[in-house]
Design a protein that fits this description.
189 residues, alpha/beta
């Protein structure tokens, strides 16, 4: 039968956890996270559980009371949004359960790049700055990269002035470490 003649609800329900899936944690490694990243995830979970989910449940129950659910946009969209919220809540609960908080300001060796370091480096004549954070808190637009990202792996244990090799799809490239800092204040969202 053509898909054009099936109802949306006839399609098998597929649990799509891929959209919330973070990169896998390397075997034997822990799910490191900064205190700020841990707070952001906890805040998101609290927001979903106490604000968004109850609001959507209210809309769905109102829409369900309006009769025919098959063509009720509020009901259909609400149920879909509820599944998305529940999927994200499950994901956050799993990740928070295995989170291993590491406070970068407690780092004793501030001469080398480790988890939580903010590193300024030169690559192809351009200066760039990244902060090395946990898998679940990486935000490239904020200059935060996961500790398993290629740039972070290349920079790990380097010192100021070191030239390290970054493996790229175009082959190895050289980058120079210009500055390493560890924030005494926890970065905020």
């Amino acid at each position: 039968m053509s898909k054009a003649f099936t109802k949306e609800s006839d399609a098998p329900e597929v649990e799509d956890d891929l959209e919330d899936a973070a990169p896998p944690i390397p075997a034997g490694a822990k799910n490191y996270i900064t205190p700020a990243g841990l707070r952001r995830l906890q805040d998101e979970l609290r927001q979903l559980k106490t604000v968004e989910r109850p609001k959507v449940v209210e809309i769905v129950s109102w829409a369900a009371g309006n009769g025919d659910r098959s063509e009720n946009g509020d009901y259909l969209y609400g149920k879909k949004r509820l599944r998305e919220i529940d999927r994200r809540i499950r994901f956050l609960l799993k990740r928070l359960e295995i989170a291993e908080p590491v406070d970068p300001k407690l780092q004793k060796n501030r001469e080398q790049v480790f988890f939580g370091a903010t590193v300024t480096y030169e690559h192809n004549g351009q200066e760039r700055t990244v902060r090395i954070v946990g898998i679940d808190e990486a935000r490239l637009e904020q200059g935060e990269v996961s500790w398993i990202a290629p740039i972070a792996r290349a920079l790990m244990k380097a010192r100021e002035g070191d030239i390290v090799e970054l493996r790229t799809p175009h082959g190895p490239e050289q980058i120079e470490v210009l500055e390493i800092t560890y924030s005494d204040e926890d970065a905020t969202a």
